[in-house]
Amino acid sequence: MSRNIIAILRGIRPEEAVACAEALVEAGITRIEVPLNSPDPLDSIGAMAARFAEHPGIEIGAGTVLTPEEVAQVAQRGGRLIVSPNADPAVIAETASRGLLSWPGIFTPTEAFAALAAGATGLKLFPGSMAGPEGLRAMRAVLPKGTQVYAVGGAGPENFGAWFAAGADGFGIGSALYKPGMDIDEVARRAAEIVAAYDAARAEIAR
Fold it and tell me: What is the pLDDT of residues 5-25, one digit of tens each?
């Protein structure tokens, strides 16, 4: 079963990318982004995209995507997931025009509605630590029904429940899952713990 978690592999190197992605997928995390300020990020994205090319439910792509040109570069390497820290209509439009998944960063209702109007797949509430669950709860009152919102930065196993209760659909998880140079076994262990915490929080909300 897939979870609404985007793994953020900031700093990963191409030679470890496939093994890391396999560990995450095995744990149940099937959305993976490599921020473009990582070493040789397009090589890592290309390697992971090729590994899972026959698995359409596994979404590989890039984070910290700031320009339409970068969207094109990611697409050329087989990436399908485009995540940004900001909501640039040109980046969102380029992503949508290529049939890719667009997750721009937003912090205010104004940014949220502009991103949706430009064609965003879903919204990345960033930094989540500044908005907090209460900030998302207030925003949910005005967002269109069905809008997908992932909390990124300040969301983790310790507060998944509070975020779910406030209306979060999922999360972006970075250093709690992966840090540069981390052993793959440690990545797998952390992924399993995060998935277990996610499942527990989701089940509690559903009760």
Answer: 999 999 999 999 999 999 999
